[in-house]
Write a structure and sequence with these properties.
The complex is a heterodimer of chains A (70) and B (773). Chain A contains one helix and six strands; from the N terminus they run ββββββα. Chain A is of the alpha+beta class and 70 residues long. Chain B has six domains: 98 residues, Fumarate Reductase Iron-sulfur Protein, Chain B, domain 2 (Orthogonal Bundle); 159 residues, FAD/NAD(P)-binding domain; 76 residues, no CATH class; 133 residues, Rossmann fold; 109 residues; 79 residues, YaeB-like fold (2-Layer Sandwich), CATH 3.30.2310. In chain B, the strands form five sheets. Chain B has a five-stranded parallel sheet with strand order 3-2-1-6-7, with helices on both faces. A five-stranded mixed sheet of chain B has the order 8-10-9-11-12, sandwiched between helices. In chain B, strand 13, helix 25 and strand 14 form a beta-alpha-beta unit. The radius of gyration of chain B is 37 Å and the shape is elongated. Classes of the chains: A alpha+beta (70), B alpha/beta (773). At the A-B interface, strand 2, strand 4, strand 5, strand 6 and helix 1 of A face helix 18, strand 18, strand 19, strand 21 and strand 22 of B.
Chain lengths: 70, 773
Amino acid sequence: MNQTEDYATPTDWMCSNCDLPLEPSKVMVTYLGNSYPVQLMRCPKCGMVMVTEELAMGKMNEVEKALEDK
Amino acid sequence: MDQFQMHELEAKCVQECVPTCVASCPLHVDVRALCAEVSQENFNNGLQVIKKTLPFPGIVSRICEQPCQPVCKQNEPIGIRDLEIACVYFGASAEEPVSTAQRRKQRVAIVGGGLNGMTAAFDLARKRYPVVVFESSSALGGRLRSIPESQLPRSVLDAEIGLLTKMGIEIRLNTTVSTSPESGQVTLGQLQREFDAVYVAVGRSFSPYVMNPKEMGLGNVDSFTHGTAIANLFICGDFEKEEPFSLILSMSDGRSAAVSVDRCIQRVSLTASRSNEGPFESCLYTNTEGNKHSAGIPKGSKGYSAKEAVAEAARCLKCECMECVKACEYLSSFGGYPKKYIRSIFNNLTIVMGTRQANKLINSCSLCGQCGVICPTDLDMGKLCKEARHTMVEQKHMPPSAHDFMLSDLEFNNSEHFMMARNQPGSDSSEYVFFPGCQLSASAPEQVEKTYDYLRKHLQSVGLMLRCCGAMADWAGRADLFKNSLDQIKKQHTEMGKPKVILACSTCYEVFKENLPEIEIVSLWELFEQYGLPEGVSKKKAGVVSIHDPCSARHETKVQDSVRALVQKAGYRIEELPYNREKTTCCSYGGDMWVSNPAVAKTVVERRISESKNDYLTYCATCRDFFATKGKPTYHLLDLIFGEDVPARAARRGPDYSQRHENRARLKERLLKEVWGEAMADQASYESIHLSFSENVRQLLEDRFILVEDLQKVIEHAEKTGQKFKNPNTGCYLAHYKPTRVTYWVEYRHDGMDFEVLNAYSHRMELGENVRS
């Protein structure tokens, strides 16, 4: 996750409060003091970010483990 | 752990020690490797193994006195010398590449061309010294020439002696070296002046050379280095030895002398680090218990055929220790053995930059202590792993994912949800206090109630303490949390009037015994044995069980005995497991192994439950639940004591993690109400959210260490704030929330106040999102 990696895959999920479709947006993710920019789907109005199961259990988990061993 | 401590620990692991055969061989032929090669029909490689340490393999394989034979661990010793002959016969190896180009300038004289001097000459020529051998007779070989042709053919002898010339060694035959200048012969003094070092290897049978070093002003000859009072003169003290002459030992003398000569010329210590020269006692432990008898392969008059040699070599036990690794799935899963692991752990704790390779190794151990009991030198990897965890926490390098789940469990158990300490109703201090522990309360809360009733029937003034003993904090390396928990126990215990603590769980027992020595404790099982089974419990012949002793009870012989007595009283016959009592294995719960390394934990459980076809019986609720959940009918001792629903009790799977929390909370609620007539404090608002899910989702939650209360908190937050995603096509919602350190995601739909969970996942990475409401 050194460069901004793109995980903003098209989705049917919409922001419930704002009633808007999600849009790709750059978000900082942080773990154990390390921050990386990633592209994720996000509500354009309230800013709520979506993390898919695939991302959470896949790449994110992998990076978490790697950072824990640093 | 500093470097010194690491070396001390490493030295305890004997796995890398050489086998007894290799240690007893004065020249240390790697017999284990030799047998491995020959058993695979690799005679060429076998010969290479021999040549690595042995000059003149053709000669030695015919004349060696075989000190390796009596120490061989095989019940009929391996015919090692015959295998060497087979390698010399069937194996081909490239001739020694002898380069005369890069010779050193320091020259060495060797007086005496027997096996001793020949070995020294061979070794020194290999080290690129120009060597001259002075031999008084007309041929090299010394007493080898008196060995019958049938045992040592002259062709073999001459061929291998010829190798010395090929190596560029100068041989002066018929040249007597004298000690007296009047003799008209070459003198020792002359050699000392002409050569950089002189080695006299004339042996005691060669009387013309018998000399008295003391009379010659040479002082005592050092029997190990062969050094004398003159720095560059070395003498084999063979003539002084009283034990029977041994050809192979005389070679070892020649080899030691060559090392001394080289060190003398290099001007380095003659004595440092030479403990493994010549025969020594091996520290390797090899368990031969239960080995089947293996008869030696008989050889014909011409020695082994290739086929026979292969069969004989295959009998080699390939001696090694691996006792702990054989017993422990965790130790075997990392592909090494303690000596290697100790180094990895040390490196892990001292690394400044880069990846910590051993985090998983350190956090996967169950800390159960089985290896320490099995190890021939009592090396306990659990102790080391626990210490390493404490260091990692101090260094702030403990991976949060390793122990967080269990630390949260500890937090729950020692919160208002479960924790309570009460004297028996109507008394303001207690003589006894029942401490069932968090896992029994989670697994079988109704048995905690029954046991408390039983105790109050038999003992005066029994209080109750519900809480966790704090073991999980210790396992996680959290000295701070562990101390907090112990301090709290001390405080509660004092407030109750310092009663004797009745412990049902062996882990609690261990924690109390080791950390709270001022508190008097007793095992629940000893009390049951003393006061007998509850009335009305069936005592008919009920079947056979195998007892799994919990790992934390491995040193509690009295408790183990009480348990066995109770099982028999309940009508069961006992068949012991191979690893029982002090050698028992952990169920994978210990040390948080099951959270840190679920893959190894699975193999640990599967191996344990396949050790006997009998139903198991244990006296730890977690062991029982872990085994039963994997399909092994397992009783908790209380199942037999109360004797209800047997054998259904053995088959019931353990409650899942969420249910365990729920069971503890409800146990406290019921006890408060029924025994003390008190109401539980109001429950948290999220607890009123009613969830439902399929069996698949339930399993998913277990695999992902997600609790129902986590989901309730997410949904409560989503429903209160409206912060959730919706899928217009399915009508489902997706919401996330981070109650403390982990962000949980829940996909759900709802009908009024009933929420159906469809999926859940989590991550630890924090999202920089800042939702605007």
